[in-house]
Amino acid sequence: MKIISLLEDRPMTAKEICQALEADTSREKEVYDALKKASRVLKRKGKSLMMSPPVCRKCGFVFDKANPTRCPRCKSEWIDPARFSVMD
Ligand SMILES: [Zn+2]
Q1: Residue 1's pLDDT is what?
Q2: Burial 29-61 (b: 16+ CB within 10 A, else e)
Q3: pLDDT in tens, 41-60
């Protein structure tokens, strides 16, 4: 999977993965689906997909899901996106 070799290279956000795959950013949702699949593939290889969670840039709230749209605490939409990487 191309997405895996990208992430083995360096941590990336879903948007960066879109750009690297030359996919439109409106296809970001497909990237999240592909990441779920990549996570299963990696597990079989004894590796794991790591996610540094999204953080609200306004109040510092740490999200527990990969793709939030707004902060539940301060309602800000200014969010530092999740970064994905591969761990051996
Ligand atoms: Zn917030």
Answers
A1: 80
A2: eebeebbeebbeebeeeebebeeeebbbeeeeb
A3: 999 999 999 999 999 999 99
Domain holding 33, by residue range, is: 2-87
* Beta-carbon neighbours within 5 Å of ion ligand 1: 56, 58-59, 61, 71, 73-74, 76
Q: Domain tally for the chain? A: 1
CA 73 to ligand 1 center in whole angstroms: 5
> Which CATH number goes with the domain that contains 61?
1.10.10
Give the residue ranges of the chain where pLDDT is below 70.
none
What's the pTM value of the predicted model, to 2 decimals?
0.87
Q: What spacing in Å lies between the alpha carbon of 52 and ligand 1's midpoint?
A: 17
